[in-house]
Amino acid sequence: MPLLGKLIKKSIDVANDLFEEDKNPVEAQTVVLKNLLESAKNTDFGKRYQFNEILKSEDLAKSFRVSVPCFDYHRMFGEWWNKTVEGIPDVTWPGSPEYFALSSGTTGSKSKRIPVTKEMIEAIRSTGIKQVMSLSDYDLPDEFFQKGILMLGSSTELEERDGHLEGEISGISASNIPFWFKGYYKPGEEIAKIQDWDERVQRIAEQAPNWDIGALSGIPSWIELMLKKVIEHNNLKNIHEIWPSLSVFTTGGVPFEPHQESFEKLLDHPLLYLDTYLASEGFIALQVRPNEDMSMQLAYDGGIYFEFIPFQPEYFDENGAPYEDAPALSLAQVEEGNEYAMLISTVSGAWRYSIGDTIKFTNKERAEIKITGRTKFFLNVVGSQLSVNKMTDAIQKLEEEYKISISEFTVAAVKHEGEFYHQWIIGSENENNIDEESLANSLDKALKSANKNYGVARSKALKGVKLKLVNPEIFYDWAEQTKKKGGQIKIPQMMSESEMKAFLEFIS
């Protein structure tokens, strides 16, 4: 039992005890909101919405909610952040940000520019450290705590533009890792700067024998492709032949469950899987304790104030943006099991900002959540009210029924000869052994069982399901064609009709 690993784990235990002071999430959120308003009261935004007056209120949360409207990215940028990009200081947050996160999001979408302040860098760093500290609560061997951590994010080679730096948030975060962490961080600064994803992964494969990796971090699909490259290049049967200490995978960005079966084919034994929620707007949530459903705790004291809009169709427009009069609840008012869209106010100058994700609370007392989907990725063209989590449940049933691994999927409502259908494209390495019509019928049945609104729609305006089965590599080739590989690029699980037609044409 290595002495160094034992000492490191003991240090983490002590530090974790300090992190885990008995903080009440609701009380912590009140402090966060007050600090945000105090910090920004003299900005253009703070003056416009009278933060000084809000701070005098006895009910801070209510006064804030009543005084400040909801913003999505387009409204926030159009009215405020465009000035920040031009270099004007004190617009929505004091000073001028050193960084802008380019939110690539799903393939084919146009990048957004989101300010990242020094306060946000510090908040992301503190939240990340909190997750590292939480590892002492898991049954990991002492020697694990001296192994390398391979973080496969975006390039850390940021682009300079008009006095600031731009890149994806994972690249910005990796370029600001604490000095004490650099000895553990892989692939290291030189490889992490490589812009071309295939070249970066090739270099990782070449260097892999020189590293002793204990943990991986990244979006599942790109981590899986990287592992395949390392295995192929080094002529291995599985990744544990070269990294026997690999024990933890910190996933995020998309649900891990659809990837788990294909992912574990690359291993000698399963890993400890931890979920994270790092968005371009901030580090939203992290898994801090062992639990079966990988629930994450909101970063309730990490420079972000949260509000929650009940996720009901009457509160959102067709693009998933909340209406002006949509009710918003504080953390104290939410209920477990209900689905909500989130609004965030942050130390980067986002205010009552709709981040576009939907969540449900699994443990209100601990402020623990699960991501359930996206506000605009809610297929409701003909009343089917189909969310991503319902789709993921149905996909898992297909995997069990057909004994196959499905690592990617996407769907769109399309019109064919005057009738609406749901067109699915499913990525599975077993694509040549499965009858598409049979799979479509089983998928349709699973969705009817999971969602009564879908069942009603199928009996009326939604005429059927069309399904195309392809190798998962097709999805990644499509990502490269429409955007780029790797980083924070996510394969969209819902598409518009025009995007679906373009994808089908690409496949053909």
From TrEMBL:
On the tree of life, the source organism's domain of life is Bacteria
Give all residue intervals belonging to the GH3 C-terminal domain. 391-498
Q: Name one GO molecular function term.
A: acid-amino acid ligase activity
Q: Which InterPro entries match?
A: GH3, GH3_C, GH3_M
An example GO CC term for this entry is: cytoplasm
Domain called GH3 middle: residue spans: 302-364
Supply the name of the protein. Answer: GH3 auxin-responsive promoter
Native organism: Roseivirga seohaensis subsp. aquiponti
